[in-house]
Write a structure and sequence with these properties.
Strand content: 25-35%
Shape: globular
Largest sheet: 8 strands, mixed
Distance between the termini: 21 Å
CATH class: Alpha Beta
Number of domains: 1
Strand order of the largest sheet: 1-2-4-3-5-6-7-8
Number of helices: 6
Number of strands: 8
Length: 239
């Protein structure tokens, strides 16, 4: 196995974005592409590592950016403002996610008929929005995501399968919001699963985000269990 990487630039509106493509160069045929949507911090080493891990599983990982290339590795002071701007303008977020997806589909390593998306924290909200707008993905996986409905998808039908991996004690997504998400996905006709992990808070997959004062706590068992659930979900999608 030889994991290769390539930076991909793409645009939406007047903004230039950059994603990291990861693939196993020992495989010649196109294979399923998995878009990786980032946390509040933008595209970082965390998302890039997830894209590489997906490549090691036989997929093409595509760690995207929705803030703009100039914001990658930027001072953390910008990240809250960047996220809040997109949370308050969900159609803009959806356009940027679709632009990233289109860029992934253009890569020769990717089988454009077999794609999915995974997202972490803010990215979990993002991939749920991809499902809500009926983007051409077979499935989406939200890790400790946010569940706020976008307000522009109420009459849509969700064609993608949905897997939500959630810390039950997450202060940013309370049990009431979990129930509301299940009701929303049911109304949208989705094939959905929600896995709740007891004694688990926000950002449970990310050791670098461990900060109990902010309700973000790494949880090794939930991290391991959620990754296994994702692997099973993707294997079922692309069997």
């Amino acid at each position: 196995m030889s994991i290769k990487t390539r930076l991909i630039e793409y645009g939406e509106g007047e903004v230039i974005f950059e994603a990291l493509l990861c693939w196993d160069d020992s495989v010649s045929d196109p294979r399923p592409g998995i878009l990786v949507a980032h946390t509040i911090r933008g595209r970082t080493a965390f998302e890039e590592a997830k894209a590489r891990d997906l490549a090691e599983l036989g997929y093409v990982g595509f760690a995207i950016d929705v803030y703009g290339k100039s914001e990658i590795r930027s001072d953390d002071r910008n990240t809250r403002a960047n996220m809040d701007a997109l949370k308050s303008d969900r159609p803009l977020l959806q356009r940027r996610l679709n632009a990233a997806l289109s860029a992934m589909l253009e890569q020769p390593e990717v089988n454009a008929d077999r794609v999915a998306a995974v997202g972490f924290c803010f990215g979990g909200l993002g991939v749920l929005d991809l499902a809500r707008i009926a983007a051409p993905v077979a499935g989406v996986v939200s890790f400790h995501g946010l569940f706020d409905p976008p307000g522009n998808t109420d009459l849509n039908q969700v064609e993608a399968s949905v897997l939500v991996l959630h810390g039950w004690d997450d202060p940013l997504a309370t049990p009431d919001s979990v129930v509301a998400l299940g009701e929303e996905l049911t109304a949208l006709g989705a094939d959905w699963q929600i896995h709740g992990y007891g004694g688990t808070s926000h950002a449970f997959t990310n050791p670098a985000a461990n900060d109990t004062t902010r309700g973000t706590v790494y949880h090794a068992a939930a991290d391991r269990r959620s990754w296994l659930s994702m692997k099973n979900f993707l294997a079922e999608l692309f069997e």
